[in-house]
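seq/struct pair 1
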Amino acid sequence: MKSDILIIGGGAAGLMAAYGAVKALPEGSRARVTILEKMPRPGRKILFTGKGRCNFTNVKPWNEFSKHIRTNPNFVKPAFFNFTPENMIDFLETNGLETVVERGDRAFPYSHRASDVLDTIVETVMRQGVTLLPEREVRQIKPGFEVVCAGGETFEATKLIIATGGLSYPMTGSTGDGYRWAELFGHKIISCFPSLTALVPKGYKIPDGSEPELKGHISRETPMTGAGEALKGAKLKNISLTVTYDGSVKETEFGDIDFTDGGIEGPIGFQVSRKCVKTMLNGGRVAFSLDLKPGVPIEELTERVKTLWNEIKNDPRTRQAKDGRGINGKEMYRILLGKLMPWDLIPGFQTWNPDILKTTIKKFEYRSRRGGSPQHRSYDVNLDLLAKTLKDWKFDIAGFVGYERCVITAGGVSTDEVVAKTMESKFQEGLYLCGEILDMDCDTGGYNLQCAFSTGLLAGQSAAKSLN
């Protein structure tokens, strides 16, 4: 089968490349644009973005947007201005999908369903006359852009666009195939590693003793410890996270984190994960400190904790509870924590910080009629230590979740070898590369998808224009 423009990969970048190509063709052109997609359906990874709600772009202006690109922002700049976040919103709304911009300038479909974004893109591309061929796994690329699929089906192309994605979420078809094809044409692959991924505290998972594929990699499927289970599901908002690399270099972020079955995630957990993973891969150590009360100095917090404790002790309900026998120190401590943190965090906080509440067991000298010495339990709460821990809750990071559930792949085809204004290879005329296959990764918040859309559209446009 012959195609004027052949696109390998039907993800965000590949779909937008197809759209850009057909829209750039001159009116009346009979040029054929074809997408080869490995999976039964295109764009499956889009369904996982924004926790299924699809944060498809971020409407920050370039001078702010570019600060969230962790590689070379100058490479992305021409593609960004060629197809801006506002253009992406217009694309979806023009084609029938209402959108909304929320906190942090993040854009979502109004329905908050990622499937609506994917369906809108696919339907729009198909209406333009693009040929989308699912279940076409490319096995070989021969000189002259002759592409051979599993089963022997062969395609010939005038222009070839590689948009195969990276290594993250391999169940969606992203298994790094594109890196091999790029290397065939002489491209250098910058070492890849997981980014925007869960970071696993020491003691959170049960070590399985096996040698990981990547140094520090802990599979998300690894069973959790009881301490990990106690924290799972807790969400912390408006906290401060300080990361220490190799015991000295520090980085502080403010925002939200989530404790999940993978480890520490959420916006600022993901924000720091790139550097944390890279440090661990290089043999370095990573430690976290959570400040649950970043707006309150330690002295003020300590005084507040003691005041709350006295209020609980002197509350008539404390003395009258439990049929007049009163509430013991352990229960009072739990009430105190409920005034200082979300209730769903309390079990985990207590499990990870057992020294704050100390239990003393005293045996009376006389024996009861039933035999044995009666016991009395007393509980001593270290209020100073509690305040200190609220300001400096420490975790040593043991590892990270790998490609099986990371959001994005860091590394990839060196952008020094791709023309930023066209996405064309500097080594092979007629070859274009776009999206996650490139060494181009960003923070969480819609930035990565926008870069995929922008570079994909530019690659498609450039390929179509070069046909003329």
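seq/struct pair 2
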Amino acid sequence: MKRNILIAALALPSIAMAAPPVYHPPGSAMSIGSVSNMHSLVSTSYNPAGSWSVVQDFRFGILSNLGGGYELGQVDNFATDIEDLIDILDKEDLTVEEGTDAAERFNELLPIMEADGYVKAFGSLQVPLMPLVYRHTENGVFSVDFSVSGIARLGLIADEVTLKIPTDPNASPDLDTDASAYVKSAGQTTIGLGYSGKAWSNDQGELIVGARANIYRMSLSKQLISLESLKADDDIGDVAKDQYEDNANASVNAGLDVGVMWLHEHYQLGATIYNLNEPEFEYGVLGDDCLSKEGSAAQSNCFIAQKAATDGKISLTENYVMNAQLTLEGSAQVFNKQLSLSGSYDVFDVNDPLGDRYQNVTVSASYFPNRWWAPGVRLGYRKNLVGSELSSLNLGLSLFKRVNLDFAYGLESIDVDGDAVPRTLALNLGIESAF
């Protein structure tokens, strides 16, 4: 029996984030970072002042972004070891020797897996025709964006594995543990209404200001699934989906982004504060009224959640706050702004909806030719300065000034069944209207 736990995480109903999600930059932003770029329509999802430079009159996305990826914790063979534990817990003809070896193995492994092991899957989608950007001759640039995104994380709550030897000599011994899979997920829908306009100019450049009001609908869920309750042919993703609605909580709130940019013929500088008002959302409650749950497995998972909370490993109630974030950006351009060297830096660290910390810094070089038949290329480097501290090398390609393909390859790796696997991978595909 083999369960693909990455696919299980992807299968959760998390795709239902407006600064784009910190864990998954959309479109060409995967390569060039949180930088306003006149050649990239999806870059208007970042600094709201940036829409000033991406449109001459009217521009819209066809399918600006469709993408996804994964991130893995720093534990070798994490998914394989969970699968092995489920298999041996479900084994009916277990011997004393097998049980003793398994208890020794997993009592050593489980605390390590709880501390550093996880599988995270994420994705995002720009609704077709979005973003839509319109320049009014006298009143500035207006934009509308509509996007959905989601993320799911499968971790582990450790517990001691004990071997129970029955008094009946004809009966097989049994392994007992409250170790459980800890699944958290978030699905978000965002509608953003933005404006940018010129505040001041001189011979050296223009000062552009912008703001964006965002309406968020967030669905947050978390659940514990006892590994002992799973059968050898069970799929964790299916079990998590079956219990998702019982623990999900959806709510609506609003956020405000503000930005400023200085535009010069050969460079630009910008700053953005995302979620200035710090909107807040609530998770569904775990461990509540366990005896009312339908089925013995659901009741068992509920009591295990109460035990994990008593042990201080989880909280039964949880809020997610979209903390305010200040991001600085800069870009130098030559050859009529076809060649750019860019960088962005998040001044503070913030949590994603699942509680993992991010503070990204990016540097990139990009070439967007004026001729429609010449391909554009992007090369970038991204580093998370906190949390996982993962880094990636990012490559992008534009065809016919419309089709964008961007790929992120993690520079750190773990061992999975004898093979080195990058701890993060992501891919974006987008089609945008050109000038």
